[in-house]
Design goal:
- With 311 residues, the chain is mostly helical.
- The longest helix has 36 residues.
- It starts with a helix and ends with a helix.
């Protein structure tokens, strides 16, 4: 048991083997706090968020037939950010901030969908344009909130949350994230073979018996798991854009295989990124910085190799 627990703690944080052994032998209570209250919930949260963002990226890239689409395409990141910023301004606790982020993400996507529906309900392009408009609106509201925030207390909290971090992840956060994430990932994995059909043009999908309603259900589930991920970990970019391409290079374009493997690789990727974020320096680096440093060059290399296939 000690070997298993030690492996988890060494993976999940910056703690040496001698220090770990000392904690375990001399103070079981301290060891329990480190493992059960700090490391384990953070590790599980990283795995769930990585899997959710990656599987959402695969779905959105298939639905919008665009390899450069990320889970934030429908404005969920901007809406969730504004919801969290409002809760921080009004001094809500961690649970309130998470709930506000989730509600904000759902509201933003709903507004984008309604605007796209009233403009042209059959056009994916109009849905994307509507999402850009809604994202710009919520980004402006976030900037306004930052401008009016107290520079001593509120503004640093807002900026740090928007940069993404799992430093405050706990079992209460997992109570929000786990049910939505596990349900959404399981449903999308089960529907992997249907996503192959939905990735075709609208006419082909309808001809093969997969209509618009199914497509909207898939997009809704992907949006919900993205919102749940953002409400716990903040805005973590590049995971949902990079990991699907890595999975596609390894396993091919069959979504029956691509969807579950993207979830697995995404969980592993974010667990490692979170470990680097808190281990590189004494001051923890925001998670989105690590994912961007890894993701941007990787996507550039993939673009150079595959650009002719994309466009």
């Amino acid at each position: 048991m000690f070997v298993v627990v030690s492996a988890f703690c060494l993976l999940c944080g910056r703690i040496g083997l001698e220090q770990l052994y000392s904690y375990y032998i001399s103070n079981d209570e301290t060891f329990g706090v480190i493992f059960w209250d700090l490391r384990l919930p953070r590790l599980i949260a990283a795995a769930l968020i990585g899997a959710s963002l990656s599987i959402s990226g695969v779905v959105f890239q298939a639905m919008f037939q665009n390899p450069l689409v990320s889970p934030n395409i429908l404005g969920v990141a901007s809406g969730a950010g504004f919801g969290a910023v409002l809760c921080i301004l009004f001094s809500f606790g961690a649970f309130g901030i998470s709930l506000g982020a989730f509600v904000g993400g759902v509201v933003a996507v709903s507004l984008a969908y309604l605007l796209g529906h009233f403009t042209n309900k059959n056009s994916k392009l109009m849905l994307v344009l509507s999402s850009i408009i809604i994202s710009a609106l919520f980004d402006a509201l976030i900037s306004l909130a930052k401008y009016t925030a107290d520079t001593e207390e509120k503004l640093p909290s807002i900026v740090y949350w928007l940069m993404g971090s799992l430093s405050s992840a706990n079992w209460g956060d997992l109570a929000i994230l786990a049910p939505i994430s596990l349900f959404g990932v399981a449903v999308l994995v089960a529907m992997g073979w249907k996503i192959n059909i939905l990735a075709l043009s609208g006419e082909h999908a309808i001809f093969l018996g997969q209509g618009r309603v199914l497509g909207m259900i898939v997009v809704l589930i992907a949006t919900l798991v993205t919102s749940a991920s953002i409400c716990v970990g903040g805005i973590v970019g590049w995971v949902g854009l990079l990991v699907p391409h890595i999975a596609r290079l390894i396993y091919g374009a069959n979504h029956a295989v691509l969807v579950p493997m993207s979830a697995v690789l995404g969980a592993m990727f974010l667990m490692l990124a979170d470990t680097f974020a808190r281990s590189i320096s004494t001051a923890e680096i925001p998670l989105s910085i690590i994912t961007a440093i890894i993701g941007a060059p990787s996507i550039a290399i993939i673009m150079i190799k595959k650009a002719k296939r994309w466009f």
